[in-house]
Amino acid sequence: MTQDTKPILDEAKEYLKVEFDLLKLNLLEKTARLLSFIIGIVIAIVMSLIAVAYFSVMLFDIFNQLTDSAFWTTLIMIVLFIGLSALIFIFSEKLFLNFFIRKVYNLFFQQLNDMKNKTQETQNQDNNPQNQPQI
Fold first, then answer.
1. What is the Cα 124 distance to its own chain's centre?
2. Is 80 within 8 Å of 59 (Cβ atoms)?
3. Three-state SS for 3?
4. Which of 14, 64, 87, 133 would be a feasible disulfide site paired with 73, CB 3.0-4.6 Å?
5. Where are the strands (E) in 1-135, listed by range?
6. Which long-range contacts (CB under 8 A, 24 or more apart) does 50-59 make?
7. Alpha-carbon span 72 to 60, nearest angstrom
8. pTM, 2 dp
């Protein structure tokens, strides 16, 4: 190797090292965001289950007072929960899947979307006749 290419190779190695470090930091940030999102979802699910349990006990008590029969109250509760489960299953893709996909997509591709939006804004400003100088 000649002396002329050695500084260029050193610069290239240093550049690649910095880019790799930036990639690792970016990945760490996105992983931390994803984990905090997952932990938030788990906490929300646990709190929702607790609320559903209290609501179920309340409904059971109300239906028990109305029917004066634990059998009919239990049957009503079973039918209600089967119906609720069926509705959640039917609409699960619209309710949950699209939300999670959109959230994870925004998490990993937020910077690309921001850069694309800024580029479109500058293009719109350049093409806007109000910004053109008056002749």
1. 29
2. yes
3. coil
4. 64
5. none
6. 56/81
7. 10
8. 0.61
Write out the chain's pLDDT in tens, 135 residues: 556 778 888 889 999 999 999 999 988 888 888 888 899 999 999 999 999 999 999 999 999 999 999 999 999 999 999 999 999 889 888 877 788 888 878 877 776 666 666 667 766 666 655 555 555
The amino acid present at 128, given as its one-letter code, is N
* Sign of the CA dihedral with 62 first, then 65, 71, and 72 last: negative
| Identity at 36, one-letter amino acid code | S
Burial readout 24-46 (b: 16 or more C-beta within 10 A, e: otherwise): eeeeeebeebeeeeeeeeeeeee
Q: Which residues contact 56 (CB under 8 A, 6 or more apart)?
A: 77, 81
